[in-house]
Amino acid sequence: MLQTLRKYSDIILSFSIKRFEQAGSSLRLRMEIDLADGSKLYVRETVMRGMKRKYAYHWQDSAGRLLIRWDNAPDWDVESFPHHKHVAEQDRVEASYERTLSQVPDVVRSKISNQ
What is the C-alpha to C-alpha distance for residues 103 and 101, in angstroms, rounded to an integer? Predict the structure, then answer.
């Protein structure tokens, strides 16, 4: 994970791990990442018994408005089910192919660079 965060040091100002628990092949991670443009990325990952993985990556601007949230809660019928993203609005849902902490920062970097 630290290697992934270092790869994006051009856009990541700092990060803090709010919770990390591991028991055998299960783990829970909660993290906040401060980004160069003043926005934040909130990371939530849970792995249960090394098999079932739940995640949410919530990116919001400096005013707390949702930019994009990626998650795999099975609550939307999209092409990439259950993986999807909420874009700018809670009800605007799209298919998502970014599913890990190593993929999401590429999108963030691209959007920050184009501002």
Answer: 5
